[in-house]
Design a protein that fits this description.
Elements lengths: L3 H6 L2 H12 L18 H16 L3 E5 L3 E7 L5 E7 L18 E2 L2 E3 L7 H16 L7 E7 L7 H8 L8 E4 L2 E2 L2 E5 L1 E10 L5 E6 L9 E6 L3 H9 L4 E5 L4 E6 L14 H12 L3 H7 L14 E2 L3 E2 L1 E3 L3 E4 L2 E10 L5 H12 L2 E8 L2 E2 L5 H14 L7 E3 L11 E4 L1 E2 L13 E3 H19 L3
Parallel strand pairs: 3-6, 3-7, 7-23, 8-24, 9-22
Antiparallel strand pairs: 1-2, 2-6, 4-5, 5-25, 9-21, 9-23, 10-19, 10-20, 11-12, 11-18, 12-14, 13-14, 15-16, 17-19, 18-19
The structure holds zinc ion.
The site of zinc ion has 5 residues, from loops.
């Protein structure tokens, strides 16, 4: 077996420079610069073109897929295919940064910048892993395609386009370097929808809370008719809310604690608090009942299910709007292989006496831990890292792997090095980055040589 660590080290300088240039393209989706051939805007196009140029320079066969994706291919024609799927788009920048977010500053062994760990770093590592194999004559009897999409962060329309309309080829084995080490073999199914109802909730005039359906709502603004006694009640009961009282209106901001929608039990819903409080005080049976669906797993209305691999179902209701007697509440429902999403959402609708509108369904994903794909990747990871006790993971979130057949998420966030993805000061350790190259090289080599 080749010494992948030593070989990877030889690409350190070149790979760092390539990654820095990649990060310096601020490839955030931009609707103002959408046109034919650049469906996600100018900078995403630039990042995809940059990735394609790297492929050309390194002697890969390059195919651009209508601005949705780019494919770099190398290997024996008609031999079995290994697919690697990452993305060139990044989420927008917010908050305070130590270094400018698109500077790709290298400081004390870390590269800072938006995209450093999600997903330009890991994808660049995968590219250099394949280049390493190619340069050393180690791609024999198999083919590799490295695919970069341009729209992962907004729901992966890029990879769907690639497989449905862009002549994307089903790989024998695939992985996506866009999650955590070591490997994710199981992902919950995710159903998104909205509960809606026409109802008069007097004395409530309006409610507005939450921004995304996949997070626990930590702040809900409720506007009511003025009510001095209710204000006293809130103060006496020490309900966590800001009170703003005028002659015409009473404005309350209920406060909770946010958490990811896949783990609602880690948060405190401001919506639940408001429903409980207002429902109890004004004896509004509808709101009181609605507050009971916030039990995080659907037991209250019979929507609960449990899977050995994927655990308990979860329900998060993250976004609430109420105005002119129109009430709507977002639904983020996650479940294992034995759940019936149709049945559970029907029970939710019946219990709440609201209408359920389906927005999207992402099916669950579940691979056998003993399958050649999972066991080979785990072997490659363990050999390179010596972390022999690490186990493949089951998660409540969804990764890029859901969009590609025969594919699991494999790396590249390291335990203890969270990388700050989607947050300020996103970074990747150079050491991790080079280790990623070695692991990916070994993984592709082992998959390619499977009988
Ligand atoms: Zn990503």
């Amino acid at each position: 077996m080749p010494n992948f660590k030593k070989l990877a080290k030889g690409y350190e300088k070149e790979a760092i420079l390539a990654l820095q240039k990649y990060i310096r393209i601020p490839s955030v989706y931009d609707e103002h610069t959408i046109k034919e051939g650049q469906p996600f805007g100018e900078n995403v196009k630039k990042a995809l073109d940059y990735f394609a140029k790297l492929g050309e320079d390194y002697g890969f066969e390059v195919r651009k897929v209508d601005g949705y994706a780019v494919e770099l291919e190398f290997g024996d024609k008609n031999a079995p295919l290994i697919g690697i799927y990452g993305h060139s788009d990044v989420v927008p920048v917010s908050g305070e940064w130590k270094y400018p977010p698109f500077s790709a500053t290298l400081k004390d062994g870390e590269i800072f910048g938006r995209g450093a760990c999600d997903d330009k770093g890991p994808l660049t590592a995968a590219l250099y892993a394949v280049k390493l194999l190619k340069d050393n004559g180690l791609i024999k009897g198999y083919r590799v395609k490295i695919v970069s999409g341009g729209d992962e962060e907004r729901g992966s329309s890029c990879l769907r386009y690639y497989f449905e309309k862009g002549n994307g080829e089903t790989p024998r084995f695939g992985f996506t370097p866009d999650a955590n080490w070591p490997l994710i073999y199981a992902e919950k199914g995710i159903t998104h929808g909205t509960l809606a109802k026409k109802i008069d909730l007097k004395p409530i005039i309006a409610m507005d809370g939450g921004t995304v359906s996949n997070a626990v709502c930590d702040s809900l603004l409720v506007t009511l008719l003025p009510d001095e006694k209710f204000v006293k009640y809130l103060q006496e009961k020490k309900i966590p809310c800001d009170i703003n009282s005028t002659k015409e209106l009473l404005m309350l901001r209920f406060k909770g604690k946010t958490a990811h929608g896949s783990t609602p039990e880690l948060g405190v819903s401001a919506i639940k608090l408001a429903f409980e409080t207002i429902g109890a005080y004004y004896k509004n049976a509808f709101l009181s009942k609605l507050s009971t669906i916030f039990d995080n797993n659907g037991k209250s209305f019979g929507g609960y299910s449990h899977s050995t691999e994927l655990g308990d179902s979860t329900f998060n209701f993250g976004v609430l709007h109420y105005m002119m007697n129109e009430l709507s509440l977002s639904v983020d429902f996650r479940y294992g292989e034995n759940a019936s999403p149709e049945e559970s959402t029907a029970k939710l609708a019946a219990y709440t006496e609201m209408e359920f509108h389906l927005d999207s369904v992402a099916p669950y994903l579940l691979y056998d831990k003993k399958s050649p794909l999972v066991s080979t990747l785990m072997k490659a990871y363990k050999k390179e890292t010596m972390k022999f006790f690490d186990k493949p993971l089951a998660i409540g979130g969804g990764t890029y792997a859901k969009e590609a057949p025969n594919t699991v998420a494999f790396g590249a966030e390291w335990k203890g090095h969270p990388g700050n993805m989607h947050s300020p000061d996103e970074y990747i350790f150079v050491k991790d980055f080079i280790n990623d190259i070695a692991i990916y090289a070994r993984a592709v080599y082992m998959l390619g040589n499977l009988k």
